[in-house]
Amino acid sequence: MQTPSPLATTLADAASRECRRALRALGDTQHRHRGIHEARKSLRRLKSLLRLGTTTFADALPSLEKAIDRLAVGLSPLRDAHVAVETATSLAGSLAVDVEACAGAGPESWGRAIDLLTLRCEGRLTAALTKDPGFERRRSEVRMLARQVHALPWQAMTTEEIDHALAHSERRVAKARKRMRKSASVANLHRWRRRARRLRMQLELVRKARKAAGLPAPHHADREKALAKDMSLLSDAIGARQDLRLLRDILRTLVDADTAPALVAATTRALKLRRIPVDAPTLVVTPPA
Question: What is the rounded CA–CA span in Å between residue 222 and residue 49?
Answer without folding.
Answer: 21
